[in-house]
Amino acid sequence: MGDFAFDLAHLLSGLMVVVSMVLLYQDRLTAMLNVFAAHAMLLGAAVGWQAEVQGAGHLWITAGIAFVFKGIVIPAALHAMVRRLGIHREIETVVGVGPTLIAALALTALAVLVVMPATEYANPLAREDLAFALAVVLLGLLMMITRRNAVSQIVGFMSLENGLILAAAGAKGMPLVVEVSVAFSVLIAFIVFGVFVFRIRERFDTVDIGTLERYRGEQQDGA
Amino acid sequence: MSLFVLHVSLTFGLLLAAAAAGVVGLRRQGASDVVYGLSALAAAGGAGFAVVHGFLGESPAALALPGGLPGVGIRLRIDSLSLVFLVVVNAVAALVSLYAVGYGRHEHPGRVLALYPLFLIGMNVVLIADDAFTFLIGWEFMSLASWGMVAARHEDPEARRAAHLYLLMACGGAFALLFAFGVLAGHAGDYAFAAIRARTLTGWMPELALVLILIGTGSKAGLVPLHVWLPLAHPAAPSHVSALMSGVMTKVAIYGTIRLVFDLMPTPQWYWALPFLFAGISTALIGLLQALVERDLKRLLAFSTIENIGIIYVALGLAVAFTATHLAAPAAVALTAALFHVANHAVMKSLMFCGAGAVLHAAHSKDLEKLGGLFNRMPATGALMLIGAAAISALPPLNGFASEWMVFQAILASPALPVEGLRFLVPAVGAVLALVAALAAACFVRAYGIAFLGRPRSPEAAAAHEVDRVSLAAMALMAGLCIAGGVLAPLVVEALRPATLQLVNAGLPAQAGPVPLTLTPFDGTRSTYNGFMIAVFLLVSSFLASWGVHRIATRATRRAPAWDCGFPDASPATQYTASSLGQPIRRVFGPIALRVRQQIAMPPPGSTAPAEFRLSMTDPVWSLFYVPLARLVELLSWQFNILQFLTIRRYLTLMFAALVLLLVVVVLWR
């Protein structure tokens, strides 16, 4: 593998981490969805480059799925959802942006510290990829717990899943069926989330999941 | 090898067939005959195969079956130690199953039927397991099947409580064992016994493993303070199951201790003996004191089991101490004594429980205060129970005496110990053990005397009748084993030699004294015991005495004296009762060891209500150990209850925090 191949793979996956951070920084839903589309397209590019470098044809399919579905279809659907709900301005963060970004930096450092020593003898490409992928996963989780809005939680989940696919693409010999099933499960999750969000909206006139909390366990308590 | 295959397939095949018959015949007449008959056959076969193994010297035989943990499989192995326990467990199980053929006909069997063979399978699997996974599977099989039989009379709230407590203790014990195996196998993670044996443990790992082993196996054996379930659960099951649980299952637990400590653990340190000695002697004392004041016959027997477990653990502790200090000969004596007492107690406790079952069936009560005068009504049971009671009270020439005598021989060898502390401790333990041995006799004089002698204390006891012949035959065989174990003690000890050779690299000297059948723990210059001679002497002297009495006594009619043999009043209530006979012990030990509370409620003046005497006893272990533990658990559950009502985001945060924490640990640990 040439230096250029390594550098480009490194650049693409590094960019994904950066975009994950950018995701955390957004305070408008529409902007966030656009950033997420960029995230997914970057994933498509990264996986495509892996397909080229590894000469693995099936990875092109994964790249295609990532690019078309996650980069175009799902963001478009989410845009439509946000428009129909009329919530394009809202984002209720739980923790402020500053502390969130500091936590994100710490998590990225942690991911590098965990992966680097553990994969000492692995292919350097896979190593870097794994470290970045873990960082993307952790940032996705961080996004899920620092946001209240159901749509931004969906976006957090999907960016987490992007990290998983990045990790999978970096490892050689990952069979296509795994990626297809992962993509499929994300699609299902998206549908479920979507339906769920509309149901929440119908019931409670908001997609702030904090509202749900009041409605738990009332049968038992008889409140 | 092929013998082992035959052994395993035949025993387990028969037992599985019995279990299937138990399921099919749940509500059918005559199913109990089939189930118990097949079980008896399988157990007898198991014991027979083990004996043949021993004679052919084919041990150790090993067998690996597919399944189980990946990379480990199901490994079975028979060595000298397994052989000893296979013979003890299966021989006693065969006799108890035979008893159950008779007893099961009138004992409502229903749920017990299918579980009984599974229980036997579990115990057999534990004895031949050669990897931790198989061992634990067998162990849990044994626990669950016996739990099911304890819970068989679930209509009774007492039995439900006993079963619940038993399940809790069994879970705790199994967890401790699981962790013990984890510590022993280390992160290499090879759970085959051969791999565990080959490992060397560093730091405080061996001590940790020892504590976990003692908790895990001790909770099943009934070691103080883990004994609280035993006096509740053992008597709650039908009597033949009580016999197996008390007589045999506790021995399987002891097998676990021996296998893990003497075989799988590295060479012991002298201070490893301390937990054995302390736990053993307090177990013996507490168990016996409770037995001395207990009114319920079966529960009394369960307490006596705890006492005997204590004696066995003391002997094991001595074996550890002697092994650690490289005193091979006394170590062999101590270990032989422990194994011998295991065999003896298995036989005599099963006999006693079977007898208690017969009494329960005949007199419809196991409350000593409602029994009495049973010897005249059920002479055969009475005579057999007398042999069992004498054996368990360690009277020569029966087997209980021989093994307890050997324990004392090991204690008398303690001055040779090079550790100052042990030289003081072991004689003190011996003194307490002597007290226990004496009190055990008192306990069984009380139990037997109240139940079988005197006059009946209830109409049911007065209407009691002898039990069926099959049960009697089984009990007679057990009583025969009690006598044979005492009279032929040197032969038994010879049979135990391969096991002690395997575990402590030493055996007793050849049992060939100047007089045949002399038990010689050390060489001939030190103390020896000959049960055969004592038996002959007792037979001859009692024959002569009775002959003399008949010869000298006059045949003339005698008039009864005015005092009427101490029973001038015809009411049976004037006799000694179980409580009154135990009263002196209660006075002496009661306030501390038994937490006795006595209350006398006098009616107010003018009232015609009777005065009342109330007596309450609790095991001090409850208030010292379990009540605080239960409070702690309750407190923690209340604290953790908050976790039940978190928001979705907080749950996610918890998971995230756990993940990050683990990753940080990974980074820092390296």
UniProtKB/TrEMBL annotation, chain A:
Major localization listed first in the record, in broad terms: membrane
InterPro entries: HyfE-like (IPR038730)
Superkingdom of this protein's organism: Bacteria
Membrane spanning residue stretches: 6-25, 32-51, 57-82, 94-118, 130-147, 154-171, 177-198
Localization: Cell membrane
UniProt keyword list: Cell membrane, Membrane, Transmembrane, Transmembrane helix
A GO-annotated cellular component: plasma membrane
UniProt membrane topology term: Multi-pass membrane protein
The protein, known as: Hydrogenase-4 component E
Record lineage: Bacteria, Pseudomonadati, Pseudomonadota, Alphaproteobacteria, Hyphomicrobiales
From TrEMBL, chain B:
The keyword Transmembrane belongs to this UniProt entry's keyword annotation: yes
Transmembrane segments: 36-56, 83-102, 114-142, 163-188, 208-229, 270-289, 310-340, 383-402, 422-449, 470-493, 529-549, 651-669
GO molecular function, one term: oxidoreductase activity
Keyword Glycoprotein: no
Pfam families per record: Proton_antipo_M, Proton_antipo_N
Ranges for domain NADH:quinone oxidoreductase/Mrp antiporter transmembrane: 129-413
NCBIfam families (UniProt xref): PRK06521.1 (NF005086)
Protein's recorded name: Hydrogenase 4 subunit B
Organism taxonomic ancestry: Bacteria, Pseudomonadati, Pseudomonadota, Alphaproteobacteria, Hyphomicrobiales
